[in-house]
Every structure is written in structure tokens, then in C-alpha cells.
Write a structure and sequence with these properties.
By secondary structure, the chain is mainly beta. The protein has a domain of about 100 residues: Immunoglobulin-like (Sandwich), CATH 2.60.40.1120. Helices cover about 10% and strands about 45% of the residues. The chain contains 11 helices and 50 strands. The strands form 10 sheets. The protein has a 22-stranded antiparallel barrel. A 5-stranded mixed beta sheet has the order 10-15-16-13-14. Strand 8 and strand 9 form a beta hairpin. Helix 4 packs antiparallel against helix 5 and helix 6 crosses helix 9. It is elongated and about 110 Å long.
């Protein structure tokens, strides 16, 4: 009896010891075909919270508090998953078989939880770090233009704007960009500054693009789509990596109106990540880009078909300062009154109701700095409080130079933007807080700065001396006509005479005047705006699925505070920052039915903005039916909305924007002036921004308080995998927009005809107003893509998309800037030859001609075909890669936006270490 009891006690103690056993599991994982180590492979002990990822040497090591034997579950995208039984703590040597990734990609952003891309309820496109490595693009951001249904506008080398479903412009406020859970917009301007504080090239884990309406999950501004970027987890992606790209652009001077010659292109990126132990890991990222930017050099005339030699009112698309335009008839009348003998010359000129003459403008080259520069810094620390509870602290800083197009060209010189995040995350919930800080730097607003510079070196008219550029021009015009010159010759001679003393672009005098104007705040009569706005955001989300067994339920709360701070230069905040708050709550439910063949989903979101009385409620309902194995039909209805941007919202209070930013001698109508002081008129049937004294060409415009805009969108799609090697996706959509926000060019009441009252005439100012169109606007389109795994690591892809707009409100500039159809083709190989050390990739994009309208100019973008290509060689033992490539290989300049620069070829060589 005693013996039996002792044995029982011994067995119980042994069981306790085994249950609390601590074992170190380690090993190395390699590619079974090439023998290369495989980093970032997930290794988990089945039915436990313990696991690890292989480091850059292919090694893993973690401690598990569980008895042996146990089973390891090993998985990595692009390889066949394995389960391995572990009976002891000897280091393991494991190999994985390469496998096709088609149909196996997973996404998160479509429903805020992990699911296979092929089963997504809405259209979603995805890029991961392996796609980036094999791409020919010098910047992963530019890869987006090859995705189905995606449009971009490239305003400069460091500023690319992304959108879907047609509404495309530089600085799109209706497309949401989220990086590691943080809204990437500039707090004051309300649009993302391209990749300024996006992820560095080496730190991208994946990037997902949701096409069209997405407010139900991501809130305001998600009308044109949402892009969600996820950085690499330092526990998963470890080691030191760096990438050096040296290239050249502006290859052929004069091609595509490019005035530059060959210029160097540099891009250097470093990433260092280290797992200190099972609980602590960190990463540091640095990327620096330096190059000579593309230049906007469109010389076409926005006022007529004439050239600068034949049209005295010539205003080139990218000619700055020539928006100052005055009818010289009063000067002609004054000259006739002073000398009646000039009647034979002047009377024929006065037969025209007006004779407008524009000041001489300056081209972009030599005026705006074309030094494209971008510095990105990022640091992150992660601490695992428990195996399934993690604390994250991160900071990201971006600074540089960029140019973007809107109502004119804006040169953002030395801008700075940063984001700081603190987060607690478990498998079921997260609590995240972050802030965005903005500094607009020394921004030059191209057109108004040049208009004021022209006035600085020679006033258009000085009433005290009765002299100035226009009186000199008029006198020289009459003298040339009197000596027998033709009218065109006389106008040209008059311009040459009036331009005497005009400083050359880039000269010491020019730079002194430019700096004095561009360095003076708009509130003091200059063109500098001092945007120091900030954003604070807190979000909590919980997955109730384990608590509510009958449905998958995710719900969350979000609070956002904008601190608008422009020192009175952009907002009416002379007395201190303006607070604008948003409150949100959302929920997403999904349920599988009919033997798990049908998944139904619904999402709801409530948003309240303190600038608007009424809250907004948005919804999404969806259904995904598996009609056969690996073949899915999806249907969704979504409504989305956007509160107007902070600038648009505050327009109703007439925010002071005293910068002449809209052309003519005009400004955006965010001025503190009351409408009854400057009655606005719609400029109809006259050239954009042109000033006129003919009342018959003016139609009164009645402003109204701006309202949130919304869209109701229906989508039907199909995704199917054929034989594990052909993936097909097709879709069609139809959307209805309400209270669509567009823009209109307006002007105040014309001044007098008295030549001595020229100053009063200058009050005839043109404006650019955002307002809601009364009509319902519809957009619709369709798209298809096919990806084919050709085996032996060869892959071919093609996609086609089409977007249309109907019920266009012709009184608005609506920014629907996309061709009716477009297609992309890609062909490449990720490893061929002995030991698969060679790889290549080629892509071709075709865009037919299409109309593009933006605040300061409109016109046709010519059809273009763009070819990108690269070939790479791996130095396996050195864990390095050499890539030779080119974007726009043929160097045929093309445009993605009217008034934006022509984009030529970039030819480069890249050396990458530890980047696989």
C-alpha cells in the first residue's frame, strides 16, 4: 500500500515537472531546390502560443513551456507548409519545397481580419516585399500604376498621388493612405504627401489597395479608395540589410521639353532589425533619395491657340507670372486723348471690345528648385508582455523637397512631417494612439510669387507717376505700329521694350526678389504659408468572435483631433490653433452559411465632425459565394462619404488665403473678405481665369455652405483559380455621387475703365471655390486581370480596366482624370539558370489619350506606352544581389497630369545586401 502511494506521488511530481518543462527549440531552414537559407519563415509549436521566425541566416530559436514531443508548424508564402514532430532539443535541419503563390495570398484590409485575397468581398490589389525586390521600379510607390484599376499622378520624383475609380489629381483628398494603422495624411492639407513618411523600400512587408468606396471601415475620405501599408515585424524580419541605387535621368536634353542634361540619381536605404530575446526586438530604417527632378515645361497657351510670339495675352501652362492680364484699351484711350493724331493707329485697335495683354512669365526651370530630395527615418521597438500581448512604440520622420500641382505648382522645399505611435496589441484587440506633426517648410507658390515678383521689379502701373509696365508697353506698341510694323511684330517689340530691366531667372536680383516674396507670410502680403498643423488619433478595436460564437464580429472606436495651425496664413487662426474633432464607431460582422460556401458580411460606421451639425452613417453589405472549389462570386454595396477637407470646410468662414494662389491676380476663395464686399461671379464662356469687363460674359454665382459628399457603390465580381496556375479576376461597378464637391473659377465685380484707377481695376480678382454640385454624378466601369504561373519561376500577368463618368456637372472642375480604358502587362522570372541566380522582370503600361482638368489648366494627355525592365544576379555566398534596370526604357517622355512634368527614363544599377 505504502509502495503504491509512493509511486503515485512520484508519477504526479513527474507529471508536474513535465507540464512545466522548458525546452529550447532551434534549427535552420533552407530552400530544397537551391539550398539557400529562407528568412522570415514562421515556426510555431502547435496548440501553444510559442514560436519564432527564421532570421536572415535561416535560423530560428525559441523557448517553449510545454512537454515533448510536440509538433512544429512551418509556413512561408511561396513554399509548401510542413508539420514536423519534435522529440528532443537537437537542432533541426529543415527544407521547404517552393510552391505557387497563386490563390494563396492573404489580405487584411478588405474586412479588417485575415482572409485569402481570392475570397475577399471587395476588389483588392496586393504587393509584397518579394514583388518589390523583383520590380523594375526605382520606388515601390510607382509599382502601383501597374495594378488593376489604379491611377497615379506624378507631380515630381518624390510626390506621387494614388487613386482608383477615376477621380485622379495631385493631392487627392478622397483617397486614404494608412501606414501601420496610422492615417498618412498631412494634418492641414488633408492629403498624403506621397511616400514622404511611408515605409522605406526595405521595410515594406505588404501593401494593399482597396478600390473605390471604403468609408465603412476606414472613415472619412475613403471615396476613391484606401491603401493600407504594413511594415516588417522586427521579430520576423531580422538582420542588417542595405540597398544602393545609382542611376541617371534627363538623358536627352530637349526631349519632351526637358531643358536639362544627364543628371545623377541616388537612392540609399538601410534597415537593421534585431531580436534581442523572445520578448524584445527593434528595427531602424533610413532612406535618402537625391536627384534632379522632372520639370513641368508645357508651353501651350491656356488663353488661346497662339504662341508667345503671336498672342500678346499668352499664358503658358507652365509659365508663371503671365496670369497677370490687363485690358490695355483704357491706356490706348488715354493716349488718344493726349494725342488725337494717333487716331488712325488707335481706332482700329479700339474696334475690339478689349485688348488683353499678359505680363511676361517665367518657366519652371531656373525658377523652382528641381533638386528632388527625400530623407526618411524610422525606429520601432516591440516588447512581448506575454506571448500574445505586444507593446509597440515607433517614430517616423520625413523631410525633403517635392512639387505638386493644384491651382498652380507648389514647390514644397524643406518640408517636414512626422508620426509617433504607441500601441498595445493582442490577438483579439488593439489600442493605438498616434500623432502627426506637419511643417510646410519654405513652400513656393509658383504663379502668385511670380506675379508679385513682376510687380517688384517693375509695377504694372504706378498711378503716382502714371508709369509702369503697361504704359510702357502701350507706348512702344504705338511707336512700332507707326513705323510700319505688323501687329504681331509691334506687340513683340512692345514686350521687349517693357521687359527692359527684367531679371533673368536664377540671377542674383531674381533670387533676392523671389526670396523676399516667398519668404514673407501670406498674412503680410507675401506667398509663404506657415502650416504647423497637428493631428492626434486614438483607436480601439476588439474581435468578439470568441465571445459571440454565432457570428464573426469586430468593433471599434476612433477619436481624432486636428490642431490647425497656420499662423493666419492658411486658416483663420491668427489668434491661435483651430480644433476640429471627429468621433467614430464601427462594426463589421460576417457569417458563413450553406456548408461554409456562402459568406455574408455587413459593416456599419458612425462619424461626427464638429464642423458639421449632422453625423454621417455609412454601411457596407457583401456576399461571397463559392460556386466551385477555388471559384468565388462576390457582390457588395457600399456607401462612403467625406467631410470636406479642413480647407474646404472652413471655406464657409472664408479663411484668409491672401496669396493670389488661383491665377489671374487671383486667390483661392478662403479669404476673410465678405461676399458682399467682393461679389463673386462665375466665369462662363471665357478663358479660364481671364479677366473681362464684358458683363454679358459673367453669370452670378451664389455660394452655399459646403456639405459632405457621398457615394453609393455597387460591385459584382468573380475570382477563380484554374489548375493552381491561372488566377482570374473580373468585376463591374456602378456608383452614384451626391453633393459632389468640385471647383469653379469665379471673379469679383470688374473695376472702372478709368486708366488712372488701375489700382481699383486690380481688385478684379479671380478665385477658385469648392462647392457641392446639385446634380447626381454617376461613375461606372469594369476590369479584369489574369495571372499565369508558367512554372520554373516564370510568371505572366495582364490587367485591363475601364472607368466612365456620366451626368457630368460642366460648371465644376471635377477631377475625373482617367482614360476610359487602360491596360498593363508584366512578364518575369524570380530565379533561373544554375542555382537560380538570375532573374528579370518587364512591365508595359498603355494609356490612350484622355482629358485632364486641374485648377490652373486643362488639356489632353497624349497616349503613351511605357516599358520598364530589370535583370538581376544573385551573389549567393555574399548574400547580395546586383540589378540593372530602367524605368521608361525608351525614354519617350509621357505625362500623368496636365501641367505636371514630363517623365523620361531612369537608368540605374542597384547593389543590395541581405535583401531576399
Amino acid at each position: 500500500m505504502i509502495k503504491t502511494m509512493l509511486l503515485s506521488v512520484f508519477a504526479f511530481c513527474a507529471a508536474i515537472t513535465g507540464a512545466n518543462a522548458q525546452h529550447v527549440i532551434s534549427g535552420n531552414i533552407r530552400n530544397s531546390t537551391t539550398g539557400e537559407v529562407i528568412p522570415a519563415v514562421s515556426v510555431k509549436a502547435q496548440n501553444t502560443p510559442y514560436g519564432d521566425y527564421t532570421n536572415d541566416q535561416g535560423n530560428f530559436r525559441f523557448t517553449v513551456h510545454a512537454p515533448l514531443p510536440l509538433t512544429l508548424v512551418i509556413s512561408s508564402i511561396g513554399f509548401t507548409s510542413r508539420e514536423i514532430a519534435v522529440t528532443n532539443t537537437e537542432p533541426l535541419k529543415i527544407t521547404l519545397e517552393p510552391a505557387s503563390i497563386l490563390g494563396n495570398e492573404v489580405v487584411v484590409s478588405a474586412s479588417r481580419h485575415v482572409q485569402r485575397k481570392i475570397e475577399s468581398p471587395v476588389t483588392i490589389e496586393r504587393i509584397d516585399n518579394k514583388d518589390i525586390i523583383n520590380s523594375a521600379q526605382t520606388n515601390y510607390y510607382n509599382m502601383l500604376q501597374g495594378l488593376k484599376g489604379v491611377d497615379i499622378t506624378t507631380s515630381s520624383l518624390t510626390f506621387t498621388t494614388v487613386t482608383t475609380r477615376g477621380f485622379n489629381t495631385s493631392g487627392n483628398t478622397n483617397f486614404t493612405q494608412i501606414v501601420d494603422g496610422m492615417d498618412n495624411q498631412a494634418p492641414g492639407l488633408n492629403f498624403p504627401l506621397g511616400a514622404s513618411i511611408g515605409l522605406t523600400e526595405l521595410d515594406v512587408d505588404n501593401l494593399e489597395v482597396l478600390s473605390g468606396a471604403s468609408s465603412a471601415l476606414y472613415g472619412s475620405r475613403g471615396l476613391n479608395g484606401t491603401m493600407v501599408m504594413t511594415g516588417k515585424d522586427p521579430f520576423k524580419y531580422q538582420g542588417l540589410s542595405f540597398q544602393i541605387t545609382q542611376g541617371v535621368n534627363h538623358i536627352k536634353k530637349g526631349k519632351g521639353n526637358d531643358p536639362m542634361g544627364p543628371s545623377p540619381y541616388y537612392d540609399w536605404t538601410v534597415r537593421w532589425a534585431k531580436k534581442i530575446n523572445d520578448k524584445l526586438a527593434f528595427k531602424v530604417n533610413v532612406q535618402y533619395t537625391l536627384a534632379k527632378d522632372w520639370l513641368a515645361a508645357d508651353t501651350s497657351n491656356t488663353n488661346s491657340t497662339g504662341t508667345k510670339y503671336t498672342d500678346p495675352n499668352y499664358n503658358g501652362v507652365n509659365s508663371y507670372g503671365s496670369k497677370t492680364s490687363v485690358d490695355i484699351n483704357p491706356f490706348l484711350e488715354a493716349a488718344l486723348a493726349q494725342d488725337p493724331s494717333l487716331a488712325p493707329i488707335i481706332d482700329p485697335l479700339l474696334e475690339k471690345p478689349s485688348n488683353y495683354v499678359a505680363r511676361t512669365g517665367y518657366p519652371e526651370y531656373g525658377y523652382l528648385s528641381n533638386e528632388a530630395k527625400l530623407l526618411k527615418l524610422n525606429a520601432e521597438v516591440r516588447y512581448k508582455i506575454r506571448p500574445r500581448l505586444e507593446a509597440i512604440v515607433s517614430g517616423t520622420y520625413g523631410s525633403g523637397n517635392a512639387v505638386y500641382s493644384n491651382d498652380t505648382r507648389y514647390a514644397l522645399t524643406g518640408y517636414k512631417i512626422s508620426q509617433y505611435r504607441a500601441e498595445l496589441r493582442s490577438e483579439q484587440w488593439f489600442l493605438r494612439g498616434y500623432t502627426s506633426q506637419e511643417n510646410s517648410g519654405n513652400t513656393i507658390i509658383a504663379s502668385p510669387t511670380m506675379q508679385l515678383l513682376n510687380e517688384a521689379w517693375k509695377p504694372s502701373f504706378n498711378p503716382s507717376t502714371m508709369d509702369g509696365w503697361y504704359p510702357q508697353y502701350t507706348g512702344a506698341l504705338l511707336q512700332a505700329l507707326a513705323t510700319g510694323s505688323s501687329l504681331d511684330e509691334a506687340h513683340w517689340a512692345a514686350r521687349q521694350f517693357a521687359d527692359q530691366g527684367r531679371p533673368e531667372a536664377g540671377s542674383a536680383t531674381f533670387n533676392r526678389l523671389k526670396d523676399s516674396i516667398a519668404g514673407l507670410p501670406t498674412s503680410q502680403g507675401g506667398t509663404l504659408f506657415l502650416d504647423r498643423s497637428r493631428l492626434y488619433n486614438a483607436e480601439f478595436q476588439y474581435n468578439f468572435t470568441k465571445l459571440v460564437s454565432w457570428v464573426e464580429l469586430i468593433a471599434g472606436l476612433n477619436y481624432r483631433m486636428y490642431k490647425l495651425d497656420s499662423k493666419g496664413t492658411l486658416f483663420p487662426d491668427k489668434n491661435g490653433p483651430i480644433d476640429v474633432a471627429e468621433y467614430s464607431a464601427y462594426a463589421h460582422l460576417s457569417k458563413k452559411l450553406i456548408d461554409n460556401k456562402l459568406r455574408l458580411g455587413a459593416a456599419f460606421r458612425y462619424d461626427k465632425n464638429t464642423l458639421f451639425e449632422k453625423p454621417r452613417i455609412t454601411t457596407r453589405v457583401s456576399a461571397v459565394q463559392e460556386v466551385a472549389k477555388e471559384h468565388f462570386i462576390r457582390f457588395s454595396y457600399q456607401n462612403a462619404y467625406s467631410f470636406p477637407s479642413n480647407i474646404q470646410s472652413l471655406q464657409s468662414t472664408l479663411v484668409d488665403y491672401n496669396s493670389y494662389a488661383s491665377g489671374g491676380s487671383g486667390r483661392l476663395l478662403y479669404g476673410e473678405y465678405q461676399f458682399d464686399e467682393y461679389p463673386p461671379y462665375l466665369l462662363s464662356s471665357v478663358t479660364e481665369y481671364q479677366q473681362t469687363d464684358d458683363p454679358s460674359k459673367l453669370e452670378r454665382f451664389n455660394p452655399r455652405d459646403i456639405k459632405p459628399q457621398s457615394v453609393d457603390a455597387f460591385e459584382l465580381g468573380y475570382s477563380g483559380l484554374f489548375g493552381s496556375c491561372v488566377l482570374v479576376d473580373v468585376l463591374g461597378y456602378y456608383s452614384t455621387w451626391k453633393n459632389f464637391i468640385g471647383y469653379v473659377n469665379v471673379a469679383n465685380t470688374p473695376g472702372t475703365d478709368d486708366v488712372t484707377a488701375f489700382k481699383e481695376r486690380s481688385k478684379y480678382i479671380s478665385y477658385n471655390i469648392a462647392y457641392n454640385g446639385a446634380e447626381k454624378v454617376n461613375t461606372y466601369g469594369y476590369a479584369a486581370s489574369v495571372s499565369v504561373d508558367l512554372s520554373r519561376n516564370f510568371m505572366a500577368k495582364a490587367n485591363f480596366s475601364s472607368d466612365f463618368l456620366k451626368n457630368r456637372n460642366n460648371s465644376q472642375i471635377n477631377n475625373f482624370n482617367t482614360p476610359n480604358w487602360k491596360f498593363n502587362v508584366e512578364f518575369g522570372n524570380t530565379g533561373f539558370g544554375k542555382n537560380q541566380v538570375f532573374s528579370f522582370n518587364t512591365s508595359l503600361r498603355y494609356r490612350p489619350a484622355y482629358f485632364y482638368s486641374i485648377g490652373f489648366a486643362s488639356g489632353t494627355i497624349d497616349a503613351n506606352v511605357v516599358l520598364d525592365a530589370q535583370v538581376s544576379y544573385k551573389l549567393t555566398k555574399a548574400r547580395s544581389r546586383i540589378k540593372l534596370g530602367a524605368t521608361n526604357l525608351t525614354n519617350k517622355y509621357y505625362y500623368t497630369g496636365f501641367g505636371s512634368p514630363g517623365i523620361g527614363g531612369v537608368y540605374y544599377a542597384t547593389f543590395a545586401y541581405n535583401v531576399f
